[in-house]
Amino acid sequence: MTHTGAKRYLLAAVIASPVLSLCADWFNRDDVSLAIDIGINIILAVSLNLINGHTGQFSLGHAGFMAVGGYATAKCAIILQPLLPPWMQPVIFLAGLLLGGLMAAIAGLAVGVPTLRLRGDYLAIVTLGFGEIIRVIFQNAEFLGAATGLTGIPNWTNFGWAWGFAALTVFVIASLVNSTYGRGFIAVHDDEVAASASGINPVRYKVTAFVVGAFFAGIAGGLFAHHKSFISPTGFDFMKSIDIVVMVILGGMGRTAGVVIAAILLTVLPEFLRGLADYRMIIYSLLIIGIMLARPQGLFTFGNATNRKARV
Questions:
Q1: Where would a tag sit more exposed on the chain, N or C end, judged by fewer CB atoms within 10 A?
Q2: How much of the chain exceeds pLDDT 70, in percent?
Q3: Which one is predicted more confidently, 66 or 291?
Q4: Where are the alpha helices (DSSP H) in the chain?
Q5: How many other C-beta atoms lie within 10 A of the C-beta of residue 154?
Q6: More confidently predicted of 202 and 118
Q7: Mean pLDDT computed over 102-107
Q8: Residue 231 β-bridge partners
Q9: What letters, b where the CB count within 10 A reaches 16 and e where it falls short, cover 201-225?
Q10: CA nearest 222: which of 155, 303, 124, 290?
């Protein structure tokens, strides 16, 4: 997705989101909930695509960043809501989302600085360990509900918030990658040695990708918390990270438009299979395996694969 395409997506979402939010009562509640889930998953997939796709790393701890943002946003709302008048709710919500994003970004920086000198499988193992450490910390934090989870979270996430932030995420990531600075991510992805010889610091770009990706994952976590009104450590386990990675791989590594489509598809598909209750996950897993075998480069690989700009 080019910078111009990202602008159009942002403009369309900004115009459509408030209108559709006002018309939400016209639609089935389950359909609206599914649409919100799609928006949240787009944020998660596109933010991870910056790390795994554009920069060429392999992170398996994205659910950990989501958990940090979710808990920070939810706790902020629970503390402030009784103290402020109702008309301040949007301000509290937005402030909580930004706080959650910043906390997740700090976590991304904390894990990125000491570990991103690693590559490939080693980096994947470290980020996986980080995600599990975060989950265990929340599981034992009594003031955050420990293993039973955090309840009483205001239900403030609607279609407008979810898709508005999804559009903002796509716009920021696409603009960043297509900028002069963002070409450094692609250079690091293609050849770290050549990038270093050209004066590019690979570690700096890796850490930047991790921090930006973690920031948006934290916002997605906050939206998720205020959508479900309840969060627990089990909702941010290893399988959640795998789900996000599958969206990136299925959409095509480094292809923002493809990743958006994959996020929509993999959010909607389980709902279509809900009628096959006993076999739903088996069919879903077999479909994913079949797609990966048939299209290992990604299902939505638009344009010439050798053209780096076409892949964005």
A1: N
A2: 81
A3: 66
A4: 3-22, 29-49, 62-80, 89-115, 120-139, 159-178, 183-190, 192-197, 202-228, 238-251, 256-272, 280-294, 308-311
A5: 16
A6: 202
A7: 94
A8: 150
A9: ebeebbbbbbbbbbbbbbbbbbbbb
A10: 155
Reduced to 3 states, what is the DSSP secondary structure of residue 150?
Answer: strand
- Among 156, 155, 184, 132, smallest CA distance to 308 is for 184
Q: Which two tokens stand for residue 151?
A: 């309840």
Nearest residue to 226 (alpha-carbon basis) of 152, 153, 151, 149: 153
Contacts of 74 (CB under 8 A, 6+ apart): 96, 150, 153, 222, 225, 226, 231
Please, are residues 263 and 166 in contact by the beta-carbon 8 Å criterion? no
pLDDT(113) > 70: yes
CB-side exposure of 256: number of CA atoms within 13 Å? 29
Residue 275 structure tokens = 């009628």
Q: Find tokens 């499988």 and name the residue.
A: 121
Q: Which amino acid is at 68?
A: V
Sign of torsion, CA 59 174 46 262?
Answer: negative
Q: What is the pTM of this model?
A: 0.88
Tell me the two tokens of residue 51. Answer: 């790390």
Q: How many Å apart are CA 260 and CA 71, to the nearest integer? A: 25
Residue 194's pLDDT is what?
A: 84
The region of weakest confidence among 66-75, 80-89, 247-256, 270-279 is 270-279
**CA 166 – CA 257 distance, rounded (Å):** 12
What CA–CA distance (Å, rounded) separates 55 from 166? 20
Instruction: Tell which residue, 160, 111, 163, has the closest CA to residue 132.
Output: 111
Q: Please give the residue that has the higher pLDDT: either 308 or 114.
A: 114
Whose structure tokens read 């892949």?
A: 311
pLDDT at 287: 73
- With beta carbons less than 8 A apart as the criterion, state whether 48 and 104 touch: no
